[in-house]
Design a protein that fits this description.
By secondary structure, the protein is α/β, with parallel strands linked by helices. The chain has one domain: 3-Layer(aba) Sandwich (Rossmann fold). It contains nine helices and eight strands. It starts with a helix and ends with a helix.
Length: about 240
């Protein structure tokens, strides 16, 4: 019985290790976004021998400050909730933005399955930062929502980088251990009607020795539905 259990565990670990992004789904997202984009320009970056889409939107002012924006579970870099409002509105607040396509899986996978993609997400964030540096821009702010905040905190905790400030919006419990390894200004922004994994881990997220960490709860849900102005104001105020 013990041998059977070990064999099943081995195959489970092997399957987890071999999980790869759903590149076909990413291609479908890219086609949809390119056809409908109103603000910004699509640029193509590369990581893990695959190209991925990003949207660069220049600031209305002459600035090198640039925010990299990371979406949540299974969506795209122009997602209308949280991502699109920030990537456009911040260009009116003194920032260029680069919103990037993160690795996605098919709809049958939950957030736990995405933990097998953290090396892929690390590579994409690194590629985005490198691209901005080659464009002579300051890639100094990272903004992420939901599962994107798990990917972003993992990156910040495990990779040398140019990021100077991090904003996590609706950060779930899987960010807790990564946050403890980050020592730069952090805004932990979430809604009073947020999802359980965000609400239940709020105290654990705040349990950090990082004196530059700020946690703020506002009147919103996990997706800041009908609260775009509040979202942009909170992010912009903290960045100033």
């Amino acid at each position: 019985m013990k041998i059977l259990s070990l064999i099943l565990l081995l195959f489970a670990d092997l399957s987890f290790a071999q999980t790869q992004p759903d590149y076909a789904k990413e291609a479908r997202w890219a086609e949809q976004v390119e056809d409908g984009i109103m603000d910004g320009d699509v640029v193509w970056l590369s990581a893990n021998s695959h190209d991925f889409m990003a949207i660069y939107t220049p600031s209305e002012s002459d600035t090198k400050q640039t925010a990299v924006i990371v979406h949540g579970l299974g969506v795209h870099p122009d997602w209308p909730q949280v991502v699109q409002p920030l990537r456009v509105a911040l260009t009116e607040r003194g920032f260029n933005t680069l919103s990037i396509q993160m690795p996605v899986l098919d709809n049958d996978h939950d957030s736990l399955a995405y933990m097998a993609l953290l090396n892929y997400s690390d590579a994409r964030i690194a590629s985005a930062l490198e691209y901005l540096q080659t464009e002579n821009l300051n890639a100094n702010v990272l903004i992420a929502h939901s599962l994107g905040s798990v990917m972003s905190t993992h990156f910040l905790a495990n990779n040398a980088n140019s990021v100077e400030r991090f904003i996590g919006i609706g950060m779930p419990d899987k960010t807790v251990n990564f946050l403890k390894k980050i020592n730069l200004p952090v805004l932990d922004l979430y809604g009073e009607k947020d999802i359980q994994s965000v609400m239940h881990s709020a105290l654990d997220r705040s349990n950090t020795t990082n004196k530059q960490y700020t946690q703020r709860m506002v009147n919103a849900d996990h997706f800041f539905n009908e609260k775009d102005v509040l979202l942009v104001d909170e992010v912009s105020h903290w960045l100033k």
